[in-house]
Amino acid sequence: xxxxxxxxxxxxxxRRVLLRADLNVPLDGDKITDDGRIRxxxxxxxxLREAGAAKITVMSHLGxxxxxxxxxxxxxxxxxxxSELLGAPVAFNGxxxxxxxxxxxxxxxxxxxxxxxxxxxxAQELAAHGDVYVDDAFxxxxxxxxxxxxxxxxxxxxSGYLVAKELEVLSKLTGDLDGTERPYVVILGGxxxxxxxxxxxxxxxxxxxxxxxxxxxxxxxxxxxxEVGKSLLQDEMVDTCKDLLQRGGDKIVLPTDVxxxxxxxxxxxxxxxxxxxxxxxxxxxxxxxxxxxxxxxxLDGAKTVFWNGPMGVFELAPFAAGTRxxxxxxxxxxxxxxxxxxxxxxxxxxxxxxxxxFSHISTGGGASLEFLExxxxxxxxxxxx
Length: 385
What we know:
Elements (H helix, E strand, L loop, with lengths): L3 H7 L5 E5 L6 E2 L2 E2 L3 H15 L4 E5 L16 H11 L4 E2 L6 E3 L14 H12 L4 E4 L10 H5 L6 E3 L1 H11 L12 E5 L4 H11 L5 E4 L4 H7 L14 H11 L3 E2 L3 E5 L8 E5 L8 E5 L1 H11 L4 E5 L12 H11 L4 E4 L2 H9 L9 E2 L3 H9 L4 H7 L1
Parallel strand pairs: 1-4, 1-7, 4-6, 5-6, 7-8, 9-10, 9-15, 10-11, 15-16, 16-17
Antiparallel strand pairs: 2-3, 12-13, 12-14
Helix pairs in contact: 2-3, 7-13, 8-9, 10-11
């Protein structure tokens, strides 16, 4: 795979660069609530500007519009924030300039189409903006989309700094004997077991401990024979969880207490109960302090840690302590720690935990998981061709 450094050594002065970035930031109306993904692509943009690229055309998706323009998903706020961070003008969607951000790629149905001809037609439109293609959108490399997969086949192609860094970091987490320092502890949270099943299957034989919190823990607790009240539950996954618990043995660590409430709200009355005493009318929304202490003990002495998924509904103050406690425990290890993108990265920033307390904060939740599952990622395959 050719990298940005290869492109810079070949010479980019006077050439037009088409850059795929992952600027899929969370928005509250037109206000960006977390600009981490914009910051992550700045080193690549700055390197291209300093090397004299004639024009840089940046492209990204935002949210999940239905293949047509939707003002709710415009990238206009991102263009404004990118301009602030770079200290340079960023032209938006057809405006003239030497640094341009195109409108949301998913406003065109060809971006995500399963029809190869439709995808390729859109890819050709995009390729007209550049002489070379750089992919720095690690968060999208697991998608076979026009801007990620097909454009790479139309232009000389290179990985950006962020993609190269993500691949280097995640390679240390595959659990192979030569690449992973031990003890190796993985912490998984989030809502659904089904979303994380493939990565659990891939990593369970390779890790020393697998800690499970978040909404997904209740399906495991049900598999242990506990009643979980109104907590999030995937009934169809209970037997799968029983099998995983049998295979994992004492590698798998589940919560022993949880914070419950009668409703999903910041002003709900809460209580902390043992996992064998969850009230029938309540739902579990965070792991409890006893579980945080147990998870911290399991992390003590770890040399490699991968965390993906919050331990509870961290966006609501009464249910943030579990995620905060586990995140703080990770920052204290004397080893290599990776936060696996998505909600976990957002939680780190929302809870005010210093980012330099972790070795790496990934920008690609789904892409990180699929890499660790051992899947071929279309965007990486295209860059390697």
